[in-house]
Amino acid sequence: MLKNTLSSEEENRGSVEFQVFWFTNKIQRLTSHLELHKKDYLSQRGLRKILGKRQRLLAYLAKKNTLRYKELIGRLNIREIKTR
């Protein structure tokens, strides 16, 4: 689904962009699973944990390199993180 949004040079599995991409993919799969299985509380917990990890990575990227952050959320169609 989102696989075409990252080029082969960006497929460095340790990069923040790849990790956010991977978490976004998992979030979409879990969300579609939870639409069918509304009472799957363990999957809901896993989804919340993944959302938190992705949020922390995005906050890190926003602080370190705002240009890469803006580009990434634009490509993956993610809302901007809320700042405190």
Describe it.
- It is a single chain.
- The protein has 84 residues and is an all-alpha fold.
- It has one domain: S15/NS1, RNA-binding (Helix Hairpins, Orthogonal Bundle).
- The chain has helices at 16-36, 41-64, 66-76.
- The longest helix is centred in the middle third of the chain and has 24 residues, at 41-64.
- The radius of gyration is 14 Å and the shape is elongated.
- The protein starts with 15 loop residues before the first helix and ends in an 8-residue tail after the last helix.
- Its main location: plastid.
- One of its GO terms (molecular function) is structural constituent of ribosome.
- This is Small ribosomal subunit protein uS15c.
The number of domains: 1
CATH fold title: Helix Hairpins
* Sheet with most strands: none
The geometry reads as elongated
Structural class: mainly alpha
User: Total helix count?
Assistant: 3
How much beta, percentage-wise? under 5%
CATH superfamily: S15/NS1, RNA-binding
Number of strands: 0
Helix content: 55-70%
CATH class label: Mainly Alpha
Calculate Rg over CA atoms.
Answer: 14 Å
Taken in chain order, the helices and strands follow as HHH
Task: Give the termini distance in whole angstroms.
Answer: 32 Å
At CATH level 2, the architecture is Orthogonal Bundle
Subcellular location: Plastid, Chloroplast
GO molecular function: structural constituent of ribosome
Pfam family, one: Ribosomal_S15
Protein name: Small ribosomal subunit protein uS15c
